[in-house]
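[SOLVED] Predicted holo structure with zinc ion

Edit: marking solved, answer below. Original request kept for reference. I posted the sequence and ligand SMILES and asked for the 3D complex as structure tokens.
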Amino acid sequence: MADLARYHRQMLLPRIGEAGQRRLAGSSVLLVGCGALGSVSADLLVRAGVGRLVLVDRDVVEPTNLQRQTLYTEADLGAPKAEAARRRLAAVNSGVRVEAHVADFTGDAADDLAEGPLGVLVDGTDNFETRLVLNDLAVSRGVPFVYAGVVGACGTTMTVVPGRTPCLRCLVDAPPPPGSTPTCDTAGVFGPTVVMAAAWQASEALRLLLGDAAPGGDLVEFDLWPPRVRRFDVRGSRRADCPCCVGRRFDYLRGVAATRTTTLCGRNAVQVLPRRNGGVDLPALAGRLGPHGAVAANEFLVRCELGAEPADGGGACSLTVFGDGRAIVSGTLRPERARAIYARYVGS
Ligand SMILES: [Zn+2]
């Protein structure tokens, strides 16, 4: 058993104590997405002394991340986030086993990435496609899942406790149509909102690991500018026809609902097909992409030259989105990069 002295101030809390601290040391957490939410959650969980933290992230550290992604410094620019996070967290608390996977958390990959017993799944992602994979994994294994999302100065969190609360799919049956909702890459994000959402997440995760029966049951929405917090009791929102937590059909985990990609060899491009039909509001998308590069639009498509800023191995790339939601990402041959760019700029 690791030395518990460093946790003295936390063990003073009657709800934790030495027994709780030992319980945390025997626990495992899967955290998917090492961006802003993931940075803060991971830091809190590792400092609190969870036994094992598994990190999964598909991106690399970019200059525009440093405003809010508190695990990274300028020295990490260009490094895979999962690996940079692991290095930092190992320096924070060498008593925690931190495992890093530089990978896309797709339905196909999820089971392998989520190896071993897990006490809670934490959502640090920026898109609903990955969240619904996490939700499927949580319900299929009966492991709690703590969702959070942040855009602008607004944040939302909800804890899914399989069998006791609605699951994410009870409330969000499918990701919003591509291009229909703002993302952090189009609408921006206020750093303090991220920390508040992640604090809520880490608190729920720790209470679950400590065996507190109370977490879950609320959807919490907050806006920090101007400040406002709302809590909704969602315990009655379990859908009788939910395909996931009632029907036990795990569409996202099985990959049948996944975004499909095709590498366009010879063109240094990848085609991304949306997960569902519904089309894209092209003029609105053109407006949101405007701040990110030169935009050309016509009645059939929107094209944006994203320059070298997107994490595409440093190279410039361009994003062309058609009215049916299909997109071509030029400047890469890697499907996971193309999916990431699609999720960030068009939506999941
Ligand atoms: Zn459900």
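OP edit: The radius of gyration is 20 Å. Thanks to everyone who chimed in.
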